Write the structure tokens for this entry.
Amino acid sequence: MKKIAYAALTIFAAACTGDTTTGNNESQNSTAAGEYNPDGKTVVVYTTADSTNYRLTATDTVGFKEMKQPLETQICVFVDPDKTFQSYFGIGAALTDASAETFYKLPKDKQQELLKAYFDKQNGIGYTIGRTNINSCDFSSDMYTYVSDSSKDLNTFNIDHDKKYKIPFIKEAMNAAGGKLNLFASPWSPPAWMKDNNDMLHGGKLKNDYADSWALYYTKFIKAYEKEGIPVWGITIQNEPMATQRWESCIYSAEDERDFLKNHLGPTMAKEGLADKKIIVWDHNRDLIYQRAKTYFSDPEAAKYVWGMGFHWYESWSGGDQMYENLKKVHEAYPDKNLLFTEGCAENFNATRYNAWALGEKYGKSMINDFNNGMVGFTDWNIVLDETGGPNHVQNFCFAPVHGDTKTGQLTYTNAYYYIGHFSKFITPGAKRINCAASRSQLLVTGFKNEDGKTVVVVMNQGGLKFPYYLWINGRAAEITALPHSINTLIF
């Protein structure tokens, strides 16, 4: 099995740096004064391509030449930096129990390599977001909660379980990210005694009598983590609230979630001094997202607590891995609410597929389409998993962009890592999305203008042919080569 070395990242040029202040989604479009002029500018091209050694490799530097009206035969990517849209928040991944356990089973040098690969802004791909689980999830080795009895006042609450692996891992990730990580936390299930099926697994619903106790649970988690030196940026109310799983799960209708937020969670967060923490609703697939948005945001008493909506994709769930237009409908109807991708990965782990090019292309397709439809940021699922696609206490094994072999101590980087890096390394928090359009359907494209003035355009070739295309801006164009099944980041 061929392994692409992480050392490929050392050829990176410091293409874009600058202010890393995060920005929330802003409403509607704005037009910059004047017209962007690319004269005298050069385009630095980074490439990842199938059947090559290119992995986030600087492959070309080209200039702009005059091109007034492109011909029908000239494939173009049209870019309008003067039309800007939502603010970019960031990209990151979930720091689960499984990821933390895998990390600490690796040799020290590989641990440091992994942290640098994901969080270093110069020689890695610059992640700025983290997600973690409240109570156990499928990607935990055991099923657990933070309380030892069924008292409503949660007197026994403690996070000792997380101090072995997860908390130290999150701290190391924060340090590798420069001391700051926008961390949000999600529950998969309340404790069994709070649910009508008396089971953390297999769905079930929160009992009405325990709604206040469950709302208090989030605040205790946040305060306990912050006491350990881990700031919590926000929470989601429930991971996948419409999925009855064989692992930890809990069902909320849209009305259930709305009412729990406005009558219990929102007021409790405010009462406990945590009103500044961001609250994310839905946290599930794109298919039902508009119905959920309509239900939450039509109620001003619920909507006032919501920072935005989280969404997932999974190819095995009908509609969950497509339906990009549903995001656009929510963004158009509720432009003051953010859209954040909170989970997704390739399922059905098999180590023989480490080099499958489809792994990365799924990420590229999703990220480009979702950004173009209003998404502000992207959170991958497990940041690292072991050689089995786990650990996982219900055998729901999946892929991660990087796998650590706990027997050999080696790291394997799938091409998904590099596809994500084409966005996360070069787009900086606070950037504004700009208008981009391709003249051929095999090209997918999105673009951002960073706060330092640099423009970043990501172009993905879904097809199997090599061909030239032109980056066209206001009558000037730069000629670039699209390799078969490749992704380019263009910086100028």
